[in-house]
Amino acid sequence: MDTELLKTFLEVEKTRHFGQAGDNLYLTQAAVSARIRQLENLLGNALFNRYRNNISLTPAGERLKPHAESLLTSLNRALQESSLGSDQSIQLAVGATPNLWDSAMQNYLHTIYQQLPGLSFRAEALGREQLSQQLLSRTLDIGFLFDPPKTEELVVREFLEIELVLVSSYSDVNYAHTFDNNYVKVDWGTAFSILHANLTVNPVTPILHTTTGRIALDFILANGGSAYLPASIADPYVESGALFNIADSPVVKRTVFSAFLESSEKQEIIQQALTILKGTEPEPASTLQP
């Protein structure tokens, strides 16, 4: 199958617009339509419901999407590994949810690179479901996430604990009123969302939802507000006077899990990497320092 057809299919699914997909792929709208028709004829099913100003996937399109993503990612990885230099014998593909890269994984990547010479890397920021899918398809070698995947094919272990603290740009705000003024809610996993609902007396309407602490930090520094952030990220800003700890606010501890395929052919290097990281204190990305 021509992989360009799959790339076009995924671009149309992402943009929900044939013209926009064409612009992104440097194709005419007619060429995009022709590729989609060719793919539909090849598979014998319509992939998109075409309504005026509304394009959506059909059930066949929904089934094709994860396979198309996995196939293209696997192909890209095969091309990358085939082009490794003579001093790079193995590529390690590491994935983590977006909220973990800034709080720990960025510097962990530096540590692995420095202590395991000869490796090349691929780093991905993915949602929990995409992480699990790519681990199972061998597109990723190891993943880090708050909500552990529940499948027997993956080895899942507790990896580290992150302490989340409630901080604000306002020095005089108390816990009862923290959520009333520019509160930013960060996705720190399912357990955090459940706990968060129990911590607040009244329903909370955040000014911003985000999947990363970096976005929350930048927003409250620029516009004022409050957010739960990893203590390792928040503490330097508290020490500098840019942020303030909220008195009487509960500290939330979240466990981060590592996951890798039990039958992975890279078991040895994965175990080496995990052993090195277990003995390393997690630090936020250097670009997050005040």
What would you note in describing this structure?
With 290 residues, the protein is an alpha/beta fold. It folds into 3 domains: 3-79, Winged helix-like DNA-binding domain superfamily/Winged helix DNA-binding domain (Arc Repressor Mutant, subunit A), CATH 1.10.10.10; 81-160 and 256-284, D-Maltodextrin-Binding Protein, domain 2 (3-Layer(aba) Sandwich); 161-254, D-Maltodextrin-Binding Protein, domain 2 (3-Layer(aba) Sandwich), CATH 3.40.190. The protein contains 10 helices and 11 strands. The protein has helices spanning 3-15, 18-25, 29-43, 59-82, 98-115, 128-136, 190-199, 213-223, 231-240, 267-278, and strands at residues 48-51, 54-57, 90-96, 119-125, 142-145, 154-168, 183-186, 208-210, 226-230, 244-245, 252-261. The strands form 2 sheets. Strands 3, 4, 5, 6, 7, 8, 9, 10 and 11 form a 9-stranded mixed sheet that branches. Strands 1-2 form a two-stranded antiparallel sheet. Helix 1 (3-15) packs across helix 2, helix 1 packs across helix 3 and helix 1 packs across helix 4 (59-82). It is globular, with a radius of gyration of 22 Å. The chain starts with a helix and ends in a 12-residue tail after the last helix. Residues 1-58 form the HTH lysR-type domain.
